[in-house]
Design a protein that fits this description.
The structure holds 2 protein chains of 2 kinds. By secondary structure, chain A is an alpha+beta fold. Chain A has helices at 13-46, 64-92, 201-212, 221-232, 272-280, 282-285, 298-309, and strands at residues 103-108, 111-116, 121-124, 126-130, 135-141, 146-149, 157-159, 165-169, 175-181, 193-199, 262-263, 268-269. In chain A, helix 4 packs across helix 7 and helix 5 (272-280) packs across helix 7 (298-309). Chain B is an all-alpha fold. The longest helix of chain B is centred in the N-terminal third of the chain and has 35 residues, at 72-106. Chain B is globular, with a radius of gyration of 24 Å. The chains are: A alpha+beta, B mainly alpha. Chains A and B meet through helix 1, helix 2 and strand 9 of A and helix 3, helix 7, helix 8, helix 9 and helix 10 of B.
Chain lengths: 312, 556
């Protein structure tokens, strides 16, 4: 079972700073809550009306000094909190300046596109990063507002059409970090998931090189039939496979589909069986997805699966 | 009949009284503030049950990971309608309706300043509700874009169904209603107070209604114009909020939250007013620091106009903007804290009678402190970046609006029901209702703080089976079912008390404000005679002539 502990498992320096600030504020809050709860509990026990006692208590209208005290103390607490807020923000969100982004994140209804401008890699839903290296992300949207959120790695940031945002992004350790779209973006907002694969610099470079290889299009056998179906059925209207005529960017780039861990932005794990299920009727697994049921026959599905799973 | 011709024509039909059943027409055609108030309260009860059922459907869908109780479209419709209904058709009209009933009585007036406008305000709410719910009958059902209706999702290319159009039309109708009742309240409170009822002697509930009314008049026009722009976009191909055609998606958020954050205080200030009436009466002491409770309300009202972009920290407005809104939002904690401490100080040294209204008021104080503390946390930008749009925020604002506003509303209903109806509510059922609500509410929402910081986004119809997520959501759902039971007990209590409730005296709680001076229920003309007002607690002064609140004051 995959784990997602969020704030309880901070895995980047930015997230650690945010978790620390959160713990400070939780500690102060628990202190204040405790004072109120203790006071109210004491009142409930001590000042409950005794049966038979119908006299009125002492009529106390207030005390100016007390009012000043409990106005000034909260002002002091707010000042401390604001100071902590400012210093934490300096740590996690320094000015970007003119720096070029390492990865451009583009939100689509309901999947993520990741473009690495420095190498030219284009992939979807699964972002590879070198562990321990601070990356600058540029966040954009092609349709509605989305929000890029990896709970263990850092802040949320909206992907707004017509407005670009930046995010310093980083994972201290190697591993897989899960995330999702956090701004409601329509029917399948729930299944717009992100996997961040943090790996060693070496493996990251290897992955990038491999992503840049244009796969050979099979001509014969089942996979060959699949490749032909991909071009003649409507698949190519939405998807890209490098080295073929399919170059649309409405749906995810499928050039190296076999290397990905999931299908449909996280609804199914990537396996030939699941891919066959997905192609038979994507609406069954992701109702409302913009990929329609193509009404493919079983043999067509089999052929396309053979083709796509061969794209390494 | 005597055969003699009477000198004075006999009054064949006595003046209408609320206690007499005069048929539907006497209600529909009424411009009496009490009848209109009761119609407000009754219609919000119906919307409360509808909105509650929608919440229950949401919670059932989330009871298990990858559960298939309803489709994603229906789920999205449910949370959109739940939020819209609870805010615009339950809490807001309830508090306005309570004000409409009580303000004239509390200030010793005969009616609102503009009785016909008052009736119009109520019927516009009904019209708005019908427009909103009519969308269930359209082919593609109601709006699926959330109560915040962020552009461009709510715009034509992404929402082709008619739902958002009906949604905006319905809310536009209630918006007009809110501005009208805001104006009506302001004029009533400023001009129709009985002699002696100075602004410094105004009951705190009336103070809070006054501040709320100013907020209504200031901020509803912002959202009403945004609705108009949205309708122009959707119906006439304008593009105020569509970036693809040169509009701005962020502009909608500024409009929406420019209204939306003051709206939170519109929903909660009158609730503070209820608490400020209930706590002193049941503690048998005057409110502690009256000037500070009233003054902090004004401070909250002013501050609330300048904090809206704390809902937008993740939008990317830049850190200078973010820090300003962060500080301004944190400042609201100060006047709010002053209020809480004054309520606690009012209870301190009292002889507290824990009848049902006081039980709800006491729970309100604790739960609202939790909401306030999580509110300060989310005002800090980095923490907001962790928790915004997650279940933490869902927990936070339910503590404010359910643990806060709704608990105060329940306190208010149990407190004023005898005045409205002349019948007492059952204390036994009331205590059942209270404990079921406290347990159900905290069980449903407290755990959502943890779900949020662990990474569960809001508004998702399903979630992966991560460790603990299933069981935490199941606990929340069980809490919601307990809440459903509590609502049944509450509705039963109202029905039973209306039919067989013990007869209420004019002043069953031995309270001090003017509404308790007249009969229960009040006659159509409210008062035979308004007693002299020579302090903040006119009925205390009447009962304790040797211990006046303001011993040196003269009767006007």
């Amino acid at each position: 079972m995959e784990n997602l502990g969020g704030l309880f498992n901070p895995s980047s320096p930015e997230m650690e700073a945010m978790a620390e600030l959160t713990y400070y504020i939780i500690a102060i809050s628990i202190g204040i809550l405790a004072i109120i709860v203790v006071a109210v509990t004491y009142i409930i026990i001590r000042y409950r009306k005794q049966s038979g006692d119908n006299s009125e208590p002492y009529q106390n209208f207030g005390d100016l000094r007390l009012e000043i005290v409990w106005t000034v103390i909260p002002i002091a607490i707010v000042a401390v909190l604001f100071q902590l807020t400012c210093s934490t923000m300096k740590t996690i969100d320094p000015a970007v300046g003119n720096e070029d982004p390492d990865i451009v994140v583009i939100g689509h209804q309901w999947w993520w596109e990741f473009y690495y401008p420095k190498s030219g890699v284009l992939t979807a839903n699964e972002m590879h990063i070198p562990a321990g290296k601070k990356m600058l992300l540029r966040i954009e949207s092609i349709d509605v507002i989305h929000d890029f959120w990896i709970p263990e790695l850092g802040p949320k940031i909206d992907a707004v059409p017509g407005h670009t945002n930046h995010l310093w992004f980083n994972a201290s350790e190697e591993g897989v970090f899960l995330g999702a779209c956090a701004e409601f973006c329509g029917t399948q907002h729930a299944n717009m998931r992100i996997r961040v694969i943090s790996e060693s610099e070496e493996e990251f470079n290897k992955w990038q090189e491999q992503q840049l290889v244009v796969p050979r299009t099979p001509r014969y056998g089942k996979a060959g039939t699949g490749a032909e179906l991909f071009q003649t059925k409507a698949c190519m209207n939405c998807h890209t496979i490098k080295g073929t005529q399919a170059a649309a960017r409405i749906g995810p780039d499928l050039t190296h589909l076999n290397r990905r861990q999931t299908i449909g932005a996280g609804v199914l794990t990537n396996s030939p069986e699941n891919l066959a299920k997905w192609l038979t009727n994507p609406q069954k697994y992701k109702q409302g997805s913009l990929m329609p049921n193509m009404k493919l026959s079983d043999s067509e599905v089999e052929a396309i699966v053979a083709y796509l799973e061969g794209l390494k | 009949m005597s055969s003699k011709i009477p000198l004075v024509p006999e009054n064949v039909k006595p003046l209408p009284r609320l206690s007499e059943n005069e048929g539907m027409l006497s209600w529909v055609a009424s411009v009496d503030h009490k009848q209109i108030g009761i119609m407000y309260l009754f219609s919000t009860l119906i919307f409360f049950i509808i909105g509650g059922l929608e919440a229950l459907i949401i919670r059932i869908q989330l009871a298990q990971p990858e559960f298939n109780f309803i489709s994603p479209e229906v789920y999205n419709q449910m949370f959109t309608m739940h939020g819209t209904t609870m805010i615009f058709f339950v809490v807001m009209p309830f508090l306005i309706g309570l004000g409409v009933y009580l303000v004239p009585l509390m200030i010793g007036a005969r009616d609102m300043a503009f009785p016909r406008l008052n009736a119009l305000s109520f019927w516009l709410v009904v019209l708005g509700g019908i427009l909103l719910y009519y969308s269930f009958l359209t082919q593609s059902g109601p709006s699926e874009v959330g109560w915040f209706a962020y552009a461009p999702l709510s715009e034509k290319p992404f929402s082709l169904n008619k739902g958002p159009t009906y949604w905006a039309l319905g809310l536009l109708a209630t918006g007009i209603s809110s501005v009208a009742s805001g104006l009506n309240n302001i004029v009533t409170i400023l001009t129709m107070r009985t002699p002696g009822m100075t602004m410094r002697r105004l009951p705190l509930f009336v103070w809070m209604i006054l501040v709320t009314s100013f907020l209504l008049v200031f901020v509803i026009p912002i959202i009403a114009s945004a609705f108009a722009m949205m309708l122009l976009d959707r119906l006439l191909e304008a593009s105020f909020f569509t970036p693809a055609h040169g509009g701005s998606a962020i502009l909608w958020q500024h409009f929406f939250w420019g209204f939306g954050h003051p709206e939170v205080y519109i929903l909660v200030l009158p609730a503070f007013g209820i608490i400020s009436e209930v706590v002193p009466v049941f503690s048998r002491k005057p409110i502690y620091g009256y000037e500070f409770v009233a003054g902090s309300t004004v401070a909250i009202g002013l501050l609330s106009l300048g904090v809206w972009a704390h809902h937008m920290f993740a939008v990317g407005l830049g850190n200078v903007t973010n820090l300003y809104f962060s500080l301004a939002s944190m400042l609201i904690a100060i006047p709010t804290g002053v209020k809480v401490l004054n309520w606690v100080a009012t209870m301190w040294g009292g002889k507290i009678w824990f009848a049902t209204p006081m039980l709800f008021a006491t729970a309100f104080i604790i739960e609202f402190v939790i909401a306030g503390l999580t509110g300060v946390a989310v005002a800090s930008v980095p923490i907001d970046w962790v928790v915004t749009d997650s279940y933490f925020v869902v927990a936070h604002f339910h503590y404010a609006l359910f643990g806060g506003s709704l608990f105060a509303i329940f306190a208010g209903i149990y407190y004023w029901f005898p005045k409205f109806t002349g019948k007492m509510m059952s204390e036994t059922l009331g205590k059942w209702h209270f404990w079921l609500t406290v347990v159900g509410f905290n069980m449903t929402f407290f755990i959502q703080h943890f779900l949020g910081v662990m990474g569960m986004p809001r508004r998702t119809y399903t979630y992966h089976d991560f460790p603990y997520w299933g069981s935490m959501n199941l606990i929340s759902t069980i809490g919601a079912i307990i809440l459903a039971v509590s609502v049944i007990v509450f509705a039963w209590n109202i029905r039973r008390s209306l039919k067989h409730g013990e007869k209420a005296s004019d002043n069953p709680w031995n309270a001090w404000t003017l509404e308790w001076y007249t009969t229960s229920p009040p006659a159509v003309h409210n008062f035979e005679l308004v007693p002299p007002v020579r302090g903040r607690r006119p009925l205390w002064d009447l009962a304790h002539p040797d211990q006046l609140d303001e011993p040196n004051s003269k009767v006007v």
